[in-house]
Specification:
Distance between the termini: 37 Å
Number of helices: 14
Structural class: alpha+beta
Keywords: Calcium, Hydrolase, Metal-binding, Protease, Thiol protease
CATH class of the largest domain: Mainly Beta
Strand content: 25-35%
CATH architecture of the largest domain: Sandwich
Radius of gyration: 30 Å
GO molecular function, one term: calcium ion binding
Number of domains: 4
InterPro entries: C2_III (IPR033883), Calpain_cysteine_protease (IPR022684), Calpain_domain_III (IPR022682), Calpain_III (IPR022683), Calpain_III_sf (IPR036213), EF-hand-dom_pair (IPR011992), EF_Hand_1_Ca_BS (IPR018247), EF_hand_dom (IPR002048)
Family: Belongs to the peptidase C2 family.
Pfam family, one: Calpain_III
Helix content: 10-25%
CATH topology of the largest domain: Jelly Rolls
Number of strands: 25
């Protein structure tokens, strides 16, 4: 995003109010800050946040958070691996009362950079050291392995000269166990090949990026896989076929701070970093809105799921991994998965929450990723059988697709004359004869499907019930068309009443019937002249 700014900056008594350099002739930082404030709406909305938000914004990389525990097996290996790939690494010591300095020289509530790792030997003991830097450029750790610690004298001269820099520059060494006692999280930003150049140290990442949105009443299905609406969430298929090279003896970590799923032998694993970002939420702070609680589930697929019968198996998929669900802009997880096919389902914690999001997939070895085929986009549970009550009006649809059917029978007593008024609304002057033949059987009109899927007998359908009804009626529509229909026929309460449902079914039947007359060849593609397209548009 290009942001244009001038050099009029907020000052108080002749001094810059916010970001400023110690050097009076260094001016790029406040200009960059102004551009960032303009992008999000104000300086005020920039208050607070997490280190990884800055990492990601300044580099375009993928951020992940490791929540530290005292028994943090594998952390040292993860940090060394990340730094070898030139990732940005930071650590925070949380505080409930702002920033303050401790007796051992650390600043609680402050962010530090992790700039290096090293193993040294003291007799028969191997010590794992981390190098940290205070961004202030001063105020350093005074405990074990600090600049003035006598333990350095026990090391060979060449090691001491290579590692130790005795000056107040904000950088210092710290033993891993001390680090775990004083810090709460590690934040890693893995950089893309575009940032690092053609040959980054340690090899590059393979990347896929998807832009999507959760829409209330359509595909914002919540975070519980057992819920009926969960499988309406956006879905993305991931294929991992090339396992990583052998790991070292310390194993790996998941992004939630636990060991990755490597138990049970040395089966080959693929490292994949999944990042879910809420877009454009910070600028909504002025409206009293903040980040939604979001996350994602990863399910293992059996094969490529090309059959329509695979829909019925969605709820029984084995969950291979999941991210934490938290109210952060960027929720990420480093997964260690066996080679195979997976389904990634991002969701909000609550059904009905709306937001734009970006899903990014980083893997160490090559992978394929795509929006899940439309057959995976539909409903939970066994596809309901076609209703056989009364007469059926059959409609030809593109080759290799099932027939769309409209079950008809007498109106039930529960429907008042108001429902019959839908006849005059649906049977518009345009294509009156076609629509009448599609709907009318004798003197009565009935959409048996409506009764079948109006589960709460409210006289209306929600968008999920509409999906089920259209599917049972034989309309295997793609996700984009289903969303368009839902948006068109629902009312302000996101409900579809009987009249709207009749109109929707009639429109679909007539449109498929009309278009089937213009199929060209066996590819399911129609070719229309301008006049034919105008005729078809009258059905939509």
């Amino acid at each position: 995003v290009d942001v244009v700014v001038d050099d009029r900056l907020p000052v108080r008594e002749g001094k810059l109010v916010f970001v400023r350099s110690a050097q009076r002739n260094e001016f790029w930082a406040p200009l960059l800050e102004k551009a960032y404030a303009k992008l999000h709406g104000s300086y005020e909305v920039m208050r607070g946040g997490h280190m990884n938000e800055a990492f990601v914004d300044f580099t375009g990389g993928v951020g992940e958070v490791l929540y530290l525990r005292q028994n943090a097996s594998g952390l040292f290996s993860v940090l060394r691996h990340a730094l070898a790939k030139e990732s940005l690494v930071g650590a925070t010591a949380l505080s409930d009362r702002g920033e303050y300095r401790t007796e051992d020289g650390l600043v609680k509530g402050h962010a530090y950079s992790v700039t290096g790792t090293h193993k040294v030997s003291l007799g028969f003991t191997r010590v794992r050291l981390l190098r940290l830097r205070n961004p202030w450029g001063r105020v350093e750790w005074t405990g074990a392995w600090s600049d003035s610690c006598p333990r350095w004298d026990e090391l060979p001269t060449e090691w001491r000269d290579a590692l130790l820099v005795k000056k107040e520059d904000g950088e210092f060494w710290m033993e891993l166990q001390d680090f775990l006692c004083h810090f709460d999280t590690v934040q890693i930003c893995s950089l893309s090949p575009e940032v690092l150049g053609p040959s980054p140290a340690g090899g590059g990442w393979h990347i896929h990026t998807f832009q999507s949105r959760w829409v209330r009443g359509f595909n914002s299905g919540g975070s519980q896989p057992g819920a009926q609406t969960f499988w309406t969430n956006p879905q993305f298929r991931l294929t991992l076929l090339e396992p990583d090279e052998d790991e070292d003896e310390e194993g790996g970590w998941g992004a939630a701070g636990a060991r990755g799923p490597t138990q049970g032998g040395h089966s080959p694993r693929c490292t994949v970093l999944l990042s879910l970002i809420q877009r454009n939420r910070r600028c909504l702070r002025a409206q009293g809105l903040t980040y939604l609680t979001v996350g994602f589930h990863v399910f293992q697929l059996l094969g490529l799921w090309d059959s329509s019968h695979s829909r019925a198996l969605l709820p029984s998929l084995l969950r291979a991994d999941r991210s934490p669900f938290c109210a952060r802009r960027d929720v990420s997880r480093r997964c260690r998965l066996r080679p195979g096919h997976y389904l990634v389902v991002p969701s909000t914690a609550r059904a009905g929450d709306e937001a734009d999001f970006t899903l990014r997939v980083f893997s160490e070895r090559s992978h394929t990723a795509e929006v899940a085929p439309e057959l995976l986009e539909v409903v939970q549970g066994q596809a309901l059988p076609m209703l056989g009550m009364g007469q059926l009006v059959k409609v030809n649809v593109p080759r290799k697709e099932s027939e769309a059917v409209l079950p008809t029978q007498a109106l039930p007593p529960s429907y008042t004359p108001k429902h019959c008024s839908s006849c005059s609304q649906v049977l518009s002057p345009i294509s009156l004869g076609v629509r009448a033949r599609a709907l009318a059987t004798g003197k009565n009109i009935k959409i048996a499907t409506f009764d079948k899927f109006d589960e709460d007998t409210s006289g209306t359908m929600n968008s999920y019930e509409l999906r089920l009804a259209l599917n049972a009626a034989g309309f295997h529509l793609n996700n984009q068309l289903t969303q368009a229909l839902t948006s068109r026929y629902r009312d302000s309460r996101l409900r579809v009443d009987f009249e709207r449902f009749v109109s929707c079914m009639a429109q679909l039947i007539c449109f498929f019937r009309h278009c089937s007359q213009h199929l060209d060849g066996g590819e399911g593609v129609i070719c229309l002249t301008h006049r034919q397209w105008m005729e078809a548009a009258n059905f939509s």
